[in-house]
Design brief:
Layout (H helix, E strand, L loop, with lengths): L1 H22 L10 E4 L7 H17 L5 E4 L1
Parallel strand pairs: 1-2
Length: about 70
């Protein structure tokens, strides 16, 4: 599913950043907050971008390093 793929991408990004931070002796490292829009019908581009921004904002507010889907 698209949800599974998005989570696999998020986890891969986290793993790369973790290795990058460890190689540099960092105690913390960047993570990825991903917002995705699922739509069964055609929507104007601006509406989709607005929904993606909202999904990413929600991901960050919910603790970062996660995937949030909106429709």
């Amino acid at each position: 599913t698209v949800q599974t793929l998005a989570e696999e991408v998020r986890a891969a990004i986290e793993g790369e950043f973790r290795r990058w931070g460890k190689d540099r002796g960092l105690e913390s490292f960047p993570t990825a907050s991903i917002g995705l829009v699922l739509s069964e019908k055609a929507r104007p581009f601006g509406e989709i971008v607005k929904a993606m921004d909202e999904a990413q904002r929600q991901a960050k507010e919910q603790g970062k390093n996660r995937v949030v889907f909106v429709q």
